[in-house]
C-alpha cells in the first residue's frame, strides 16, 4: 500500500483524477462525433482525448498509464488513423475525383448526414490523439542526465 | 470593439512579462496566460471552432515546455549583451515596423471583408455537403487536400521526435579481453 | 485599424525575443508568440461587423456571417505550430543532454 502511495502525486489528486478522466474522454468523443453540427471537429476532439491520457500519466505515474495505452498501442492507433483517412480519400476515385463526397447526404441537422465528413473526423481524431500522446511518452522517457565530453 | 482592444493589450503586456523575466518557469506560465487571452479574443471575433482548438493546443504545449524546464540546474537566465547590439536590434525592428504600417493601409477596413469565394461557400454549403458547420465543411470537403497535408505534417513531427529521442547505437559490452576496452569506451560516450 | 497595429506590435515583441535572447527556452517562447500574432491577424481579417458565427441552425434565416475561409486556414496553422514547437523542444532537450547548458554562446561545436 505504501508503494502505491509513493508513485505519482498526492491522494487528493489521484481521487479527483479517478473521477474525471473518464468524463474528459467522453467529452472529447462527443466533440468529434458532432463535428459537422456544432463547433469542434476532429482536431479539437483528438487533442482533448490525448489530454485525458496525459492527465492519467501525470497523476499516477508511468506504469499505470502504460496499462491503458502502451507505446505500441499508441503507434498502432496513429497509423490506423492515417491509413483510414487516406483510404476514404482514395475511395472518391470511384465517383470521379479525389475526396469526392460519395455517401448519401441525408437530412440536414441530424447526426447521420453530410457524407464522409463524420468518418474523416473519426480518422483524424485517432491520428491526432495517439500521435500527441506518443510525443509526450517520448519526452518523458528521455533520460535527462548530462553526458560530459571527455 | 473596446473589449477586443483590451484583450490584445493584455496579451502584449503578458508577452512583455514572458520575455523579460529571468526565472524560466515564470516566463513559461506567462506564455500560457497569453495563449488563454488569445482564445478569449477568438471568441470575441465570433470564431468558436478556432477558440476551442487554440485553448486545448495551448494547454498541451505548456505541458511540453514545462517538461523541458523543470529541474534543470539553472532556473535563472543570464544576460550580458552589449548595449550596442540591443540598439541595432531595435533599429532593425523600427525599420520593419515603418514599412509594415504602410502596407496596413492597403488592407480593407476592419470589419468589412471582401468575401468573393466565401459567398459561394456560405450559400451553397448546406446544399452541396449537407453539413451545418460551414468551417468543418470547408476543411473536409471543399479543401480536403490541405487537411491531408496537415495529417502528414503531424505524422512527420511524431516520427521526428521519436528519432531524436532514440539513443544512438549502443555497443554491447564484449567479454573478449582485447575488445573489451573498446566496448567500454563506446558505452561510456553514449551513456 | 487599431487592432491591426496592436497585432503588429505583438509580432515585433516575438521577433525581438528571438533576435536578442541567449537562452534557448526564451527563443522557443519568442517563436510561440510570433505564432499567436500571425493567427490573430488572420482571424482579424475575417471579421465582419455585427456578424454571426459561421454555423447554420434550423430556425434562422439571417445570413450575415463572418468569413469562414480564414478560420479553416488558422485551424490548420495552430496544429502545425504545435508540431513544430514539440520538435523544437525535443531538440533543445537533446542539446542540454550533450552540452549541459541552454546558453547559445556556449554551444560552439559546429565550426564553419
Cα distance, first to last residue of chain B? 57 Å
Fraction of residues of chain A in helices? 55-70%
User: H/E series of chain B, N to C?
Assistant: HHHHHHHH
Number of domains of chain B: 2
- Average pLDDT figure of chain A: 83
Question: What spatial form of chain B do the alpha-carbon principal axes imply?
Answer: extended
- Main β-sheet of chain A: number of strands, strand sense, barrel status? none
Q: Unreliable segments of chain B (pLDDT under 50, ≥5 consecutive)? A: 179-191
Order of helices and strands of chain A: HHHHHH
How many whole angstroms does the radius of gyration of chain B measure?
25 Å
Measured between the Cα atoms of the first and last residue of chain A, the distance is 44 Å
Count of helical stretches of chain A: 6
The total domain count of chain A is 1
Number of separate helices of chain B: 8
Over all CA atoms, what is the radius of gyration of chain A? 19 Å
Give a quick summary of the entry:
The complex is a heterotrimer of chains A (150), B (191) and C (112). Chain A has 150 residues and is mainly α. Helix content of chain A is 67%, strand content 0%.
3D structure, described in words:
The complex is a heterotrimer of chains A (150), B (191) and C (112). Chain A is mainly α. Chain A has one domain. In chain A, 67% of the residues lie in helices and 0% in strands. The termini of chain A are far apart. Chain B is mainly α and 191 residues long. Chain B folds into two domains: 1-88; 115-191, no CATH class. The model of chain B is unreliable at 179-191 (pLDDT under 50). With 112 residues, chain C is mainly α. Chain C has a single domain (2-106), classed as Helix Hairpins (Orthogonal Bundle). Chain C has helices at residues 2-20, 24-45, 69-99. In chain C, helix 1 (2-20) packs antiparallel against helix 2 and helix 2 (24-45) packs antiparallel against helix 3. The termini of chain C are far apart. Chains in contact: A-B, A-C, B-C. The interface between B and C is large, with 86 and 77 residues.
Amino acid at each position: 500500500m505504501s508503494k502505491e502511495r509513493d508513485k505519482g502525486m498526492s491522494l487528493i489528486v489521484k481521487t479527483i483524477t479517478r473521477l474525471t478522466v473518464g468524463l474528459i474522454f467522453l467529452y472529447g468523443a462527443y466533440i468529434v462525433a458532432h463535428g459537422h453540427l456544432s463547433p469542434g471537429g476532429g482536431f479539437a476532439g483528438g487533442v482533448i482525448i490525448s489530454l485525458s491520457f496525459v492527465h492519467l500519466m501525470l497523476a499516477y505515474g508511468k506504469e499505470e498509464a502504460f496499462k491503458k495505452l502502451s507505446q505500441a498501442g499508441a503507434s498502432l492507433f496513429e497509423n490506423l488513423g492515417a491509413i483510414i483517412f487516406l483510404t476514404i480519400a482514395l475511395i472518391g476515385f470511384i465517383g470521379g475525383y479525389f475526396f469526392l463526397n460519395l455517401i448519401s447526404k441525408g437530412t440536414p441537422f441530424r447526426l447521420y448526414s453530410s457524407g464522409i465528413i463524420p468518418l474523416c473526423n473519426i480518422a483524424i481524431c485517432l491520428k491526432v490523439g495517439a500521435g500527441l500522446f506518443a510525443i509526450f511518452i517520448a519526452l518523458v522517457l528521455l533520460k535527462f542526465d548530462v553526458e560530459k565530453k571527455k | 470593439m473596446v473589449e477586443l482592444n483590451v484583450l490584445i493589450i493584455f496579451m502584449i503586456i503578458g508577452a512583455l512579462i514572458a520575455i523579460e523575466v529571468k526565472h524560466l518557469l515564470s516566463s513559461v506560465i506567462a506564455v500560457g496566460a497569453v495563449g488563454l487571452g488569445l482564445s478569449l479574443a477568438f471568441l470575441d471575433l465570433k470564431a468558436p471552432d478556432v477558440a476551442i482548438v487554440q485553448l486545448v493546443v495551448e494547454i498541451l504545449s505548456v505541458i511540453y515546455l514545462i517538461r523541458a524546464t523543470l529541474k534543470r540546474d539553472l532556473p535563472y537566465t543570464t544576460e550580458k549583451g552589449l548595449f550596442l547590439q540591443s540598439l541595432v536590434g531595435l533599429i532593425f525592428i523600427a525599420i520593419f515596423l515603418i514599412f509594415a504600417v504602410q502596407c496596413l493601409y492597403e488592407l480593407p477596413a476592419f470589419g468589412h471583408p471582401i468575401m468573393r469565394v466565401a459567398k459561394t461557400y456560405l450559400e451553397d454549403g448546406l446544399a452541396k455537403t449537407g453539413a451545418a458547420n460551414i468551417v468543418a465543411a470547408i476543411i473536409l470537403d471543399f479543401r480536403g487536400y490541405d487537411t491531408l497535408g496537415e495529417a502528414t505534417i503531424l505524422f512527420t513531427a511524431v516520427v521526428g521526435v521519436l528519432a531524436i529521442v532514440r539513443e544512438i547505437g549502443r555497443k554491447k559490452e564484449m567479454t573478449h579481453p582485447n575488445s573489451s576496452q573498446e566496448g567500454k569506451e563506446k558505452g561510456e560516450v553514449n551513456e | 485599424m487599431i487592432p491591426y497595429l496592436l497585432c503588429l506590435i505583438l509580432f515585433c515583441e516575438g521577433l525581438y525575443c528571438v533576435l536578442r535572447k541567449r537562452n534557448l527556452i526564451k527563443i522557443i517562447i519568442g517563436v510561440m508568440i510570433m505564432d499567436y500574432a500571425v493567427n490573430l491577424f488572420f482571424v482579424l481579417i475575417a471579421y465582419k461587423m455585427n456578424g454571426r458565427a459561421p454555423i447554420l441552425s434550423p430556425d434562422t434565416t439571417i445570413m450575415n456571417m463572418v468569413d469562414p475561409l480564414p478560420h479553416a486556414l488558422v485551424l490548420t496553422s495552430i496544429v502545425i505550430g504545435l508540431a513544430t514547437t514539440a520538435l523544437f523542444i525535443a531538440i533543445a532537450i537533446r542539446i542540454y543532454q550533450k552540452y549541459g547548458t541552454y546558453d547559445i554562446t556556449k554551444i560552439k561545436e559546429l565550426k564553419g
